[in-house]
Design a protein that fits this description.
alpha+beta, five-stranded parallel sheet, 35 strands, eight-stranded antiparallel sheet
């Protein structure tokens, strides 16, 4: 019987903190590893010991097997937990851990290798009687049934995946998927299969011990996705029949037994009408594992550790209860472009579970995934879970970075979502990116709080009320980029109950409205609403030439696909940026000519930098 005493998590952020939490409850010492960019990250501060991996890129730090093993040995760790992503599904890493005499929290290297290649996995699943979609040959002269899905053979999380609708796009998208897979997983192999559109993405959580017991802990509905990355998951699915559920669980158990699986894992399927097709098996803990934990009343990390120590599972899993929903809170804008910078305030309260990789003051870099946290609600019914989650997101204080909070709220309020009518194209079918405009009362609260702050900071005549005039000659206005209001005199029917630099209470027509206000440089937050004050005497601005293509985020120029003087068509890819482990295509906004090219391959650029200029027209 193995006894774990000190455990290193070969990962970062939210999943490292999640594993550490269970370790603390079990009395197991913890070891963090961190890159230079993560030196001040919360997961480093929470660990009992921490080992620096110099560098910032994943390949030089969290993907370097030898450095991870050395960190474990140097820190006296006897066990390694891989988390998810990075090396979590790397059979070579698992074998290296075992060869170093350490305990590996996960399935055997052979099981990982069997599922690590999705091409090989599909062949094994066919032999085990698990239904699959066929893999298609890429070599001509084969006729391919478009639309297609290009997928990385290694890894997951939407990286290395591309939808191809015409033969003209195939070579470019395959090459792009290979590069992204190589960058994210160190393996550029890809394959192609038919795209089953408007299907549900359903997965089954499994857990297996070394004594022959395999659990199937229900199913998770993971259909709400953007760019093949999950945004919202729930357990159980609101639209899976008992018969289909049994079919999915039997297939998942068969898949696990076929490869002698041990530990926690997930078997993923596409479901449409009567079609059930195996997608892949993730030989690790999933990002969305908390919804299963809340419904089944288990700690999957604890069970992982117990299985790694050789313990036997009970014959049957616990009985499920209620409904759980998880949303992934990302630092990204309405167009899914990742954001970086300082997260000044991060507070999410209410009857929800928050698994986060950040805290107030954290810096979100361009080097890693932009997910800030997972927010999970559990209720006796799906409606209860939705209400709890909606309330927590609505009142969360997220200051300093643009997030996808409004997208998440719009999803939770959407009638099709409420009815359980989701599929993998749900976000393409519904435009849920709308952001609420600031209200008049919010703008008034911001203006009054700023005025109160100015009086509090005044060096002379500090006892006079804010905005005092012997004879008022004109209205006093507050101008924000988003809205303009007159705050002296106040609008008819509005009175001020209290006004401080941090809290303003207004009353309109007998109803009081309290507003918390926070200021950071040129931004003012009223609750969760951001307002940008405009300067009274603005500095001259530098005008950007018409047709300029601007960098949407900091990143590195991965490749340039045009030369000055080239003719381009609207939507044609001009260059590609790499940021946060993803490729971002910068396309021509209209037909025209490349008048200027300001960057070259490998160059680092800041957000807003001019990359190229496209002159519209034929000349």
């Amino acid at each position: 019987m193995t006894v774990i005493t000190r455990l290193l998590v070969a990962n970062r952020g939210e999943i490292a903190r999640r594993v550490f939490r269970t370790c603390r409850e079990l009395g197991i010492e913890t070891v963090a590893v961190f890159s230079d960019a993560d030196a001040d990250a919360p997961h480093v501060a929470e660990a009992d010991h921490a080992v620096r991996l110099s560098g910032v890129t994943p390949s030089a730090t969290y993907l370097d097997i030898s450095r991870i093993i050395q960190a474990a040995q140097a820190s006296g760790a006897d066990t390694i937990h891989p988390g998810y992503g990075f090396l979590s599904e790397n059979a070579t890493f698992a074998q290296a851990v075992l060869d170093a005499g350490l305990t590996w929290v996960g399935p055997s290297p052979d099981a990982i290798a069997a599922m690590g290649s999705k091409v090989r996995a599909k062949r094994l699943m066919t032999e085990a009687g698990v239904p699959i979609l066929p893999s298609l040959p890429l070599d001509p002269p084969h006729e391919l049934p478009y639309p297609l899905l290009v997928k990385a053979s290694a890894g997951g999380g939407g990286r290395g995946m591309r939808v191809v609708r015409t033969a003209d796009d195939l070579d470019r998208e395959v090459a792009s998927a290979r590069r992204e897979a190589e960058s994210a997983f160190g393996d550029g192999a890809v394959f192609v299969e038919p795209l089953l559109e408007a299907a549900r993405h359903i997965e089954v959580q499994i857990l297996a011990d070394t004594h022959g017991t395999v659990w199937a802990l229900g199913e998770r509905e993971c259909s709400v996705q953007r760019r093949h990355q999950k945004v919202l998951e729930e357990c159980p699915s609101p639209a899976i029949s008992g018969e289909t559920r049994d079919r999915l669980q039997r297939a998942a158990v068969s898949a696990a037994r076929a490869i002698g699986y041990t530990g926690a894992g997930t078997v993923e399927f596409l479901v449409k009408d009567d079609t059930v097709a195996f997608l892949e098996m993730n030989t690790r803990l999933q990002v969305e594992h908390p919804v299963t934990e809340l419904v089944y009343g288990v700690d999957l990390v604890r069970l992982q550790l117990e299985v790694a120590e050789g313990a036997a599972l009970p014959d049957a899993p616990p009985t499920p209860s209620g409904h759980a929903i998880e949303v992934r809170l990302y630092a990204e804008d309405a167009h899914y472009v990742p954001q970086s910078g300082t997260l000044h305030r991060f507070e999410i309260d209410g009857p929800v579970r928050v698994d986060s990789g950040v805290e107030s003051g954290s810096v979100v870099s361009t080097h890693y995934d932009a997910m800030l946290a997972k927010v999970i609600a559990h209720g006796d019914t799906r409606t209860q879970a939705i209400r709890k989650l909606t309330g927590a997101l609505k009142h969360a204080k997220l200051h300093g970075l643009t997030t996808n909070r409004n997208l998440l709220l719009n999803i939770l309020k959407n009638q099709d979502y409420l009815a359980g009518a989701t599929h993998t194209g749900f976000l393409d079918q519904h435009d849920l990116t709308a952001t609420p405009e600031p209200t008049e009362l919010e703008a008034l609260a911001a203006a009054l709080a700023i005025a109160a702050a100015h009086r509090a900071e005044a060096k002379v005549l500090a006892t006079l009320p804010a905005g005092w005039r012997n004879v008022r000659s004109q209205e006093e206005r507050a101008r924000f980029a988003e809205i303009e209001v007159v705050y002296r005199p106040l609008p008819e029917g509005v009175t001020v109950v209290a006004a401080t630099p941090y809290r303003v209470v207004l009353e309109r027509d007998g109803i009081r409205h309290a507003h918390d206000v926070a200021r950071y440089g040129d931004a003012v937050y009223v609750g969760s609403t951001r307002l940008t004050p405009l300067p009274r005497l603005p500095e001259p601005v530098e005008h950007v030439a018409p047709g300029s293509l601007l960098a949407p985020m900091p990143g590195s120029v991965l490749r340039v696909e045009v030369e000055p003087g080239d003719r381009v068509t609207k939507g044609q890819v001009v260059l590609v940026l790499e940021a946060m482990k993803m490729e971002h295509q910068i396309a021509a906004p209209a037909d025209g000519v490349v008048a200027d090219l300001r960057v070259e391959k490998g160059q680092q650029v800041e957000a807003g930098s001019v990359l190229a200029i496209i002159q519209e027209g034929d000349e």
